[in-house]
Amino acid sequence: xxxxxxxxxxxxxxxxxxxxxxxxxxxxxxxxxxxxxxxxxxxxxxxxxxxxxxxxxxxxxxxxxxxxxxxxxxxxxxxxxxxxxxxxxxxxxxxxxxxxxxxxxxxxxxxxxxxxxxxxxxxxxxxxxxxxxxxxxxxxxxxxxxxxxxxxxxxxxxxxxxxxxxxxxxxxxxxxxxxxxxxxxxxxxxxxxxxxxxxxxxxxxxxxxxxxxxxxxxxxxxxxxxxxxxxxxxxxxxxxxxxxxxxxxxxxxxxxxxxxxxxxxxxxxxxxxxxxxxxxxxxxxxxxxxxxxx
Length: 294
Ligand code: PAF
What we know:
- By secondary structure, the chain is α/β, with parallel strands linked by helices.
- It has ten helices and ten strands.
- The chain has helices at residues 12-21, 37-48, 81-91, 101-104, 125-129, 133-148, 160-172, 202-208, 210-225, 230-239; strands spanning 2-4, 6-9, 26-31, 56-61, 95-97, 152-156, 178-182, 243-250, 264-273, 276-285.
- The radius of gyration is 20 Å and the shape is globular.
- The structure holds pantoate (PAF).
- The site of pantoate has 10 residues, from strand 3 and helix 6.
C-alpha cells in the first residue's frame, strides 16, 4: 500500500485490511476519477452522515470498462490518480480505493455475474442510445458494494437515470446500504460539473451554456403556461451549435412518458458540443417547491 497523505488502496487485500481497521460507519462515493467540485459535494455530505459525524469516507476510482460502448471514450477518459488523491484529501475523503481491472475481476469479467437493469428504466434518455451502459454501471456498483459493504452509497443526481436505476438496484436486491442522491453542482455560469467538461475548449464551454440556459427557461415557461414546446427548445440548442441527442419530458421516477397531469416531472437532455457529450436535467413544476424552514 502506498501512503501518500491518505491511504491509497489498490488490491482487495489492501481494501480488506483497511476495512477491518474501521470502527465507524463507512460512507462510499464511487467515481471514475477526474474529480471536481461535484465530487467535493458528495464527499462533504458523506462526511456528515452518521452518528456524531464520526463516519469515514471511502472513494473509489475505477474507470469501468463495462459501461463504455465500442465507440465511446473509455481509452481517452481523463486519468490522473495523483491529482485525484490530492483533491480527495482536500475534499475530506479518508481513503481512496483505486483498483485495477484484475483487482475487480481477477478471473476476467466473463467469470462474474452481470446485472441487467430493468428495460422500462432504459427505454428513454441515455439508455435508449447507450445500449448496455446501465447494465455495466449496475454490475460494477453491485460488485463494489459487495466488496466494501458500506453503510451509505452517495451518488450525484446529475445522471438522474443512473441514480434512479441504482436506487432500484439497491431496493430490488435488498442490498443493505442507504442510498443518497446529491443535487447537481454547477459552475458559476450554470454548466453542470462533469469530468468530461475538461474536453471542452473555451469556445465550446460558452456554447455549452445554452443547455442549462434552455432548461432554466423551460422551467419558468412551464410554471407560467403549464406547458413547454420541446421543438422550440431543441432548435434553441441547435442554434448554439449543440447537436441534440434527446430532449424528453418523463415521469421522474418511472422514466416513462408522463401520463396525465403531474405536479412534477423530469425534463432531461443530452447534447454533443464539439466532440463532447453533455447531459443535464431539471424538474418541471407547476408551482414553486415547498421549502421547510426549521
Ligand atoms: O457516475 C459515475 O462516475 C459512474 O457511472 C460510477 C457510478 C462511478 C460507476 O462506474
